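quick one before i forget lol
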Amino acid sequence: MNVDELLSFLRIVQNQKLTINVKTHDDRDRIICESIEKPEQAQELIDKFELGKEFRQKGQLSLDVCIFFINRELASDIQLCNERLNNNQLLILGFRNMLLSSNFDIVKPSYARHIYQNMTRPLCDYYINTSHNTYLFYGQLSGESNPEAYNQALLAGCRAVELDCYDGSDGKPIVTHGYTFVKPCSFESIIRYMKPNLFKTSPYPVILNLENHCSLEQQKEMGRILEDILGG
């Protein structure tokens, strides 16, 4: 990475000149981070971090130093510099990092990483991660019903998915968005497709919300499909 490349990179990650004034509750000075805007500033960074004389003379950072620099200097919670120690300012990048740091979490870290609630209550006692019109892969009025949409919802953590079921012309139920131009897919293909992913991301029950528009005969076919594929 040469001076120009480093400068361009720093301009992206540091959002250039944007600053935000901050003041601590006890009026202490807040250390701020200053944007790197000039080639000579980028060269100073190279001279500071690059140990290889050949790379320094060429105004370049080696791959190892690039990785070290990014991990240490740019991925910290709040970047600190001494140039404006007394100005009580924080760059927009540092402000963002501050808000995203663990100090600003709205829940306890242990609560965020582990399930701490009582999970033995009836389903009606919980908020459930639910997908509406799950089968829609594109728009509400056109496109197609697609089994892959169910896999995406399940792998994203949904525990309730929706199937709008209608009579198929061949005697087998289909899933589609009624009274629209959405192309249908077979009910059976969706059930078969989603089965391997039902419990990949969560051990908790999956609710199949069947919006039933089928005749009695095709309702029986739906029951047979569910029993054959998922068990009864």
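fyi The first helix runs from residue 3 to 13.
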